[in-house]
């Protein structure tokens, strides 16, 4: 694997310098009094991600975080439940895999040929639900998520510049430093003009995380072998796991995840926030669900400790 890709997987919770800790304290002063949920959200690790995204500029990071908190107050992403997005998810166009990459990063699968949405609002809600769910399942010492985008069967009617623009905005402004890698697998030539338009929406750091991989290219195929256990990966991405996406099993798993999310916030709000010591965390999953129970044990699927799981 290239040194560049190794770096994309190594982002965790590095020990912060005194100067960085001082900047975190400055941000806390600038954002002011917070609600209980906002206090839980604004851990040192979360503030650190906002600072990193703004090159450790305290003023810019504070403004960005304030906007993110405003969005979370209004949109309430942690309150979105499976029943609200199940219609969007029913054909398996986007879902959290039941495996991680070799760096422990959660994996979100996207199938470009399975578009069924008639509503920008509902499609965005489904995307946010998937991101929140992936973050909920992040393992210790990992902060990022991997996207795997399957382009088999793609045509231009499968993409919308408006939706792509909105997703790019949400990801970069409200989930800074969360994207570890976005793998475009077997993207056809007709996608390139669209991607040329999309590039203008991406910040430099986000753009660098987009990698094009082709099944007929031995060099790019090595990226997949370096990042994933090929026995877990689907054939669409060159893997050996031919278990089909099962909507019923996935729905059951997501309802269990909803309970975890509810329990997490309920338990957290019942605790004395002054006693909380919340380090950051991050993890993942797909839908070869016949092995889901074993994989979920690996990922720590029991109701998470609020001291480990509120890094968004």
From TrEMBL:
Renumbered to this chain, region (Disordered) spans: 276-312
Q: Which residues form the CRAL-TRIO domain?
A: 82-245
GO terms, molecular function: phosphatidylinositol transfer activity
Indicate the transmembrane segments per the record: none
Q: Bias regions of kind Polar residues — which residues?
A: 276-304
Q: Which organism is it from?
A: Pisum sativum
Pfam entry (one) = CRAL_TRIO
Fetch the SUPFAM superfamilies from UniProt: CRAL/TRIO domain, CRAL/TRIO N-terminal domain
Highest taxon listed in the record's lineage:
Eukaryota
Q: Give start-end of the signal peptide.
A: none
What is the official name of this protein in its record? Answer: CRAL-TRIO domain-containing protein
The lineage is: Eukaryota, Viridiplantae, Streptophyta, Embryophyta, Tracheophyta
